[in-house]
UniProtKB/TrEMBL annotation:
Protein name: pepsin A
InterPro entries recorded: Aspartic_peptidase_A1, Aspartic_peptidase_AS, Aspartic_peptidase_N, PEPTIDASE_A1, Peptidase_aspartic_dom_sf
Record-annotated disulphide pairs: C98-C103, C258-C262, C301-C335
Superkingdom in the source lineage: Eukaryota
Gene3D superfamilies, alphabetized: 6.10.140.60, Acid Proteases
UniProt-annotated catalytic positions: D85, D267
Domain Peptidase A1: 67-371
E.C. code: 3.4.23.1
Family that this chain belongs to: Belongs to the peptidase A1 family.
Function: Shows particularly broad specificity; although bonds involving phenylalanine and leucine are preferred, many others are also cleaved to some extent.
Length: 374
């Protein structure tokens, strides 16, 4: 394959991401988290459950999602906050036809106010781990980071799952492969490539760990200011999600998970690192975390500096994740690890991993590039 040209960045196609308060933080502040957690159990794997064929894309109440960006739809533009989700492929936003509680506290799209809107009317249904989003498809100009994507098909919601009212973003912009798309709707990035809006068929994600600002998605390029060292290119094992083969996961040279190899999906739309319960329990045990009745694994905040790296062995290279990256501190629930169980065999490398490794999603060569974030 040819080398990806680093110098040909079109710098202006950067979409800044905000790091807002998570649903969990807002609920903890109000003392509602425990009740909510029982009502809407978190199943990080619901989205990737192979028992549900392509066509129903799964999401669940990921109460720790923090990153979203602003796009606009229509002429004149109506603005929406969306999760840029590499684990799904549809774009959908709330519409004025939606009366669910979640639509009352979010911005809603009014197609009647857009001169470029075209009705499609085909129904769209996206399953969540707890309820679903239903609606219909329309076409309009969708502007992302100053790029106007013409005739973009998107979902207008008519009903939304109750937990959506607790999350800050209005909708979701999927960045996985077109085969995954519900109702066979062409994903936004596929249209960017078709309409020659990007100089390279790739996009990159930088998630900042600290401040509200700094996180960014770069469409069509790579931003060297956000990583150091070289980029490791990993071929996809399956072109549906951004899925790669991992050889093992070790702590201090000892295999603690993914023994004999496993499949992992690089997913900006999942907050944690999720995997099979046995493997996750094992990792949490090795790093000295104790489970509580809510499924959190807690550690002593004072011992984070002494905790070991978790090392992912991928494509002949090592990707260590220090405790400073995999432990999250909250003023309400202390320090907890960013590992979540519940899957059968697939793993998800969510934001806990992507914050540490700048991630490049290359559609031209069907590879994921990983480089150390800075």
């Amino acid at each position: 394959g040819h080398l990806v040209c680093i110098m040909c960045i079109i710098v202006d196609i950067q979409v800044p991401l905000q790091k807002g308060k998570t649903a969990r933080e807002l609920l903890e502040e109000q003392g509602l988290w425990e009740e909510y957690r029982l009502k809407y159990p978190y199943n990080p794997m619901a989205k990737f459950n192979p028992r549900f064929a392509v066509g129903t894309e799964h999401m669940t109440n990921d109460a720790d999602l923090a990153y979203y960006g602003v796009i606009s739809v229509g002429t004149p533009p109506q603005s929406f906050k969306v999760i840029f989700d590499t684990g799904s492929s549809n774009l959908w936003i709330p519409s004025i036809y939606c009366s669910s509680p979640a639509c009352q506290n979010h911005d809603r799209f009014n197609p009647g106010l857009s001169s470029t809107y075209r009705h499609n009317g085909q129904p769209l249904s996206i399953q969540y781990g707890t309820g679903s989003m239903t609606g219909f498809l329309g076409y309009d100009t969708v502007t992302v980071g100053g790029l106007a994507v013409k005739n973009q098909v998107f979902g207008l919601s008519e009903t939304e799952a109750p937990f959506m009212q607790y999350i800050h973003p209005d909708g979701i912009l999927g960045l996985a492969y077109p085969r995954l798309s519900a109702s066979r709707a062409t994903p936004v990035f596929d249209n960017m490539m078709k309409q020659s809006l990007v100089s390279q068929d790739l996009f990159s994600v930088y998630l900042s760990s600290s401040s509200e600002q700094g996180s960014v998605v770069t469409f069509g390029g790579v931003d060297p200011s956000h990583f150091s060292g070289s980029i490791s290119w990993i071929p996809l094992s399956h072109e549906l999600y951004w899925q790669i083969s991992v050889d093992s996961v070790t702590i201090n040279g000892q295999v603690v998970a993914c023994n004999g190899g496993c499949q992992m999906i690089v997913d900006t739309g999942t907050s944690l690192i999720a995997g099979p319960q046995n493997d996750i329990s094992n990792i949490n045990r090795y790093v000295g975390a104790n489970g509580n009745q809510y499924g959190d694994y807690l550690v002593n905040c004072n011992s984070v500096a002494q905790m070991p790296d978790l090392t992912f062995h991928i494509h002949g290279q090592e990707f260590p994740l220090p405790a400073s990256a995999y432990v999250r501190q909250s003023q309400y629930s202390g320090c907890r690890t960013g590992f979540s169980g519940g899957g059968d065999s697939l793993w998800i490398l969510g934001d806990v991993f992507i914050r540490h490794y700048y991630s490049i999603f290359n559609r031209a060569q069907n590879m994921v590039g990983l480089a150390r974030s800075r």
